[in-house]
Amino acid sequence: MSQTILAPRDLLILSALVEGELHGYGLIKAVEAQTQARVELDPANLYRVLRRMRADGWIREVNGDDGEDGRRRTYAITARGRSILRSEVERLERLLKQVRPALADGGRT
Amino acid sequence: MTRRRGMPAAYRALLRLMPRAVREQDGAEIEETFAEVWTGARGVRGRLRTFVRAFGGLAVAIVLEWRDNVFGTGRQQAAPHRGRNDMDAMIRHVRHGVRSLARTPSFALSAVLLLGLGVGSVTTIFTVVDHVLLRPLPYPEAERLFEVQNGAHTGLDFDTWDQFRSVEMWAAASIDDASLTGVARPQRVRQALISRDFFTLFGGRPALGRLFVAEDFRTADGVVLSAGTWERLFGADPEVAGRTIVVNGEPRVVIGVLSPEFQQPEAFGSGVDVWRPIDRTEDWYGDRSYVNLSVAGRIAAGTSLEAVDAEMQAYAEQRARDFPDRYVLRDGRIHDLPIVPLQEATVGDVRQGLTLILGAVTLLLLIACTNVAHLFMARGIARIREMATRRALGASMSMLTMQLLVESVLIGAGGALLGVALAILGVRTFQLLSPEGLPRMATLAVDVRVLLFAITLALVTSLLFGLLPALRLAGGHAMAALQRGGRGTESRAAHRARAGLVVAEVALSLVLVAQAGLLLRSFAALHAQELGFRTEGIWTLPLNLSEMKDGEEYARRMEAVRAALETVPGVRMASFGQTMPLEFTGGGSCCWTTFSRLTADEEGELTRMHPVGPGYFEMLELSFLAGAPWAAGSERVQPTPIVINEALAIRFFGSAQAAVNREISWGDATGRVVGVAADNRHYGHDQPARPSLYMHAAAVPYASGRAHMGVLVDVADDALAERLRDAVWSVEPDQPVPLVRPLEEWAADATARTRFESLLFSVFGAVALMLVAGGLYGTLLYSVGRRRRELGIRLALGDAPARLERRVLSQGLRTAALGGALGLAGAWGFGRLLQSRLFGVQAGDPLTLGGALAVLLLVTAAASWLPARKAAGTDPMEALRAE
């Protein structure tokens, strides 16, 4: 597959993890801050996405197995995750460059 | 794991719906994260948003996880072409919808609340109406059952009808009060004397023992108990069959108990405790003047109601020819025998009331839907820009429409869910509050068909109006909307549509408010009605003494009870009549009715006969127009002294004065008028006076144990009832005294229906007013917000704030006035449907309609004033800078 198109939410989660390891609530807060509270993730779906990303090898769990002592599970981005994020950001930048002039024209008529 | 309370506990409970694998892997983490999110949410708004988002998201996630669990398609999510999968697209829409609604929780909640209220109330009322009016009676071949109307019938009539070819089975019953002894305490019970096929016709089955067979009608000494009575009085004793009980002083053998499923035919009267076979050898059965049978039958297969009707009318005509003095009325018409389907006979009286309530609730639902439409439109206009932007960015029209569709469905579904909950609650409440005598209330339950109907209504409303922005986008407004940008001006058509909705709302609510006004006035008029007798300080005790031989004994025993009551401390005087005023306002046969005649006059007048004890007129303070009550000790004078009411005096003699000393006869008896009493409201506040005749109790020509004692007391204390009961038992130790209550309570009962209806409609009216105020307020506020820039410019150019305030206010009032004018027409039309339920007020009563209009204008003025203040308070600089 040449290019993975990321859902906006996946994009936001990956870019939040680029800044550092986070646990669930931290991720929700980070995404909220990133988007000025326009995107608020809900816990159930967040963990669903995280499970999928981990299975695809985009992220990995840190402290995952010692849940016994009550420490929270945190997530970190993998090299594969980073490269997917990078190519997606590049794709979006290319797209915006194409769209912007067209939109500006349309708005002025 | 820590114990959670409140929201987190609810979240955790729902989390259990996830597939096990997910719960084991992530459950604790998800739960922990939610607790943190919830703790982090600030303020009511924040909590609302979080609530909608988290629970909505959880619901979506549960569905998705199960799908993955079952179909194993979870990995597809990461695939590039997931848009192709319809299911995924749908789920994305739902997710987006939940998110989008969570951004404006006040919109989502108001819409859901309004729809829920509408669905809930309509479902409740529809359920009641459907159950009471429309559902077939629980009897075999119920659609072929009918009742013979126009009063009760004689045994002679009933026996003749048995020959009808168009009827395959008949049943008759005579229901009366009886005393039951031979149990722990003497009880007053309802007994029914029934004909042979009664239980067959109405599908009665025994729960214990057996029902009546032919043999029982020969011996006529068995009884069957109703299931409830068996439990209440006999502790559900399984050995009850074969036991002897005493009904009205006669020993009877219990042969069986009816199954609890048996529903008594309410057209015949309800609450029967003991069932006995009719003894056809008794005198009354063959007596033409003794009418006491309610009669129903089943149309023979292959024939019709018309055929029965034809046979019955032929019979009525023949009967009138044979006994003209009895069955030909004064105006030449004959006493006919209408045949009415049993279903109609059962619900007849309440049909109109329920239909009316249904109409009112439908109006309310319309108003609620109008408000929801309003909310959607306001939101839709605000979203045109968002939609236009997304469209410009390449979102397809179908995708945007889908998005709106999903949001509408979510709102509609939320409203429907709330509606279901409210409906269940509403039906329970209705059962508790409904006036007595609403048929078949005990078996009421929310009807699934009705629920589906109401849910459909909620979904249609939200879909119709939720999709408006899409319609406008499709109409090519996208670019225009983008250009107008932040100014968000609304098109003239949209503005007109919104104003139209408010006008409609105002009109609909005026109808409801006017109806509430009419019913309230009617209730007030009923209360203000001169009853024509005293109620204050009078307590009554209905009795039914058993083993009564004749009128002589009746007068003697009742007089003993009366005298005993008079010795009770605090009792100023006591008296009795066969009935007391207002005792029979809920229907039922009040008193002995017969045709009275002038001696010279062969034609009769249907007259209500009132045997009364000494002091009756004095205690009730009946006023006399001519003459006076008979003197004490004149009971044995012949012709017996009587008092008639004004209606009868005018009917026979033209005036009250002319009646004194004239003679009237009935049956074999003749009486001489000694006094004429003013008409009173014996039969109910709204019942016109009927020709009535009062006589001394000893002059009753038949044996009846029924009397209603009344005592006039100075002060009623808690122990009064017990003292009165003891006084009765001091002379009649074995007689049940089921009820001791003030006459004022009977009077309250008599107006209960009007009170119930006026209360209900007042609630409807108040809710309608609130809805319309909210609707108008929202519209004006929206319009003020939208025109902020224009207002700012006006102010900057020197317009006075007061003038702007007036402009907005008058905009609101103009809308209200237009709606009011339309509403007046509607109120007048609806009021005419109401007319027969009104008392002392006309449907088109200008005072009521004017008052309703004034209330409405006042409310709308208040609702317009706040936005007007806001308009006047616009800061010109800020308004202009905001662009």
How would you sum up this structure in a few lines?
Chain A is mainly α and 109 residues long. Chain A has helices spanning 8-18, 24-34, 43-55, 79-108; strands at residues 22-23, 59-62, 74-77.
SSE layout:
The complex is a heterodimer of chains A (109) and B (883).
Chain A: H1 8-18, E1 22-23, H2 24-34, H3 43-55, E2 59-62, E3 74-77, H4 79-108
Antiparallel strand pairs in A: 1-3, 2-3
Chain B: H1 6-15, H2 20-40, H3 43-71, H4 86-103, H5 105-134, E1 145-153, H6 155-161, E2 167-181, E3 187-194, H7 198-201, E4 206-209, H8 214-219, E5 222-225, H9 227-234, E6 244-247, E7 250-258, E8 274-277, E9 293-299, H10 305-322, H11 324-327, E10 339-341, H12 342-392, H13 397-433, H14 448-466, H15 468-484, H16 492-528, E11 538-544, H17 551-566, E12 571-577, E13 593-598, E14 605-612, H18 616-620, E15 624-627, E16 640-645, H19 646-653, H20 656-659, E17 663-666, E18 669-677, E19 692-696, E20 706-713, H21 720-731, E21 741-742, H22 743-750, H23 752-786, H24 788-796, H25 801-834, H26 846-872, H27 876-881
Parallel strand pairs in B: 3-8, 5-7, 14-19, 16-18
Antiparallel strand pairs in B: 1-9, 1-10, 2-3, 2-6, 2-9, 4-7, 5-8, 6-7, 11-20, 11-21, 12-20, 13-14, 13-17, 15-18, 16-19, 17-18
Helix pairs in contact in B: 1-2, 2-3, 3-4, 4-13, 5-12, 5-13, 5-14, 12-14, 12-15, 12-16, 12-23, 13-14, 13-15, 16-23, 16-25, 16-26, 17-21, 23-26, 25-26
